[in-house]
Amino acid sequence: MHKIPESVLVVIHTVDLEVLLIERADRPGFWQSVTGSLDALDEPLLQTATRELFEETGIVADGDTIRLLDWGLSNIYEIYPTWRHRYAPGVTHNTEHVFSVCVPRDIAITLSPREHVQYAWLPLLEAADRCFSSSNAEAVLQLPRHFTQR
Fold first, then answer.
1. Domains of the chain, residue spans
2. pLDDT of residue 150
3. How far, in whole angstroms, is CA 65 from its chain's centroid?
């Protein structure tokens, strides 16, 4: 079964704008925020973001104390050749929808070992520099204008 070329990107951060990045198991040195494709064409984006956040970090967005924020922003980018085999033949681009979530700094992080090997909390600029994906780095840099303390 081929992946759907539509995904979410979830930037996890603290109130002090420290950003959580996770290192890919299949590509050492490739750091990123939570990402993941829709499971079905009609899966709501918020549901995808909630599912991927939990699967990759163990964080539960309950909609009350931990709320995902949909930025209403989409990026279209070329799929890295390394991962194109996961998509239908001829699919070369993906549409990524950006979300963020503010969490306490001491929240428990439980990585999915088949996907990620370690995590790091980093200051905003350092996190942006460490992201292997340019759209992820740009989302990290845009975080201050999307985050308002509630």
1. 6-146
2. 47
3. 19
Could you list the beta-strand ranges (E) of the chain.
6-13, 18-24, 31-32, 34-37, 68-78, 93-102, 116-123
- Residue whose structure tokens are 């306490």: 104
| Fold of the domain spanning 6-146 | Nucleoside Triphosphate Pyrophosphohydrolase (3.90.79)
Would you state the pLDDT for residue 149? 57
Indicate the pLDDT class of residue 99, thresholds 50, 70 and 90.
very high
Helix/strand/coil for 135? helix
What's the CA gap between 101 and 53, in Å, rounded?
Answer: 9
How many CB atoms lie under 10 A from the CB of residue 134? Answer: 11
pTM value is: 0.94
Instruction: Provide the residue type at 139 as one letter.
Output: A
Rounded to an integer, what distance in angstroms lies between the CA atom of residue 56 and that of residue 134? Answer: 20
37 alpha-carbon distance from chain centroid: 10
Percent of the chain at pLDDT exceeding 90: 91
Mind listing the pLDDT tens digit for each residue in 37-67? 999 999 999 999 999 999 999 999 998 899 9
Please answer whether residues 4 and 38 qualify as being in contact, where contact means their C-beta atoms are separated by less than 8 angstroms. yes
Six-digit token string for 21: 């990045």
